[in-house]
Amino acid sequence: MIEMKLQGCGTALITPFRDGKVDYDAYRVLVRRQLDAGVDFLVPLGTTAETPCLDNEEKCNLLRITRELCGDTPLLVGAGTNSLAQTIANIKMLEPCGADAFLIVVPYYNKPTQDGIYEYFKAVAASTSKGIVAYNVPGRTGANMTAATTLRVAQIPDVIAVKEASGNLAQIIDVLRDAPEGFSVFSGNDDQTWPLMACGAAGVISVASNVAPGKIVELVRAAGQGDMARAMKLNMELVPLFKNCFVESNPIPVKAALSAMGFCTPEMRLPLTAASAATTEIMKKTIEELGI
Question: 135 catalytic, yes or no?
Answer without folding.
Answer: yes
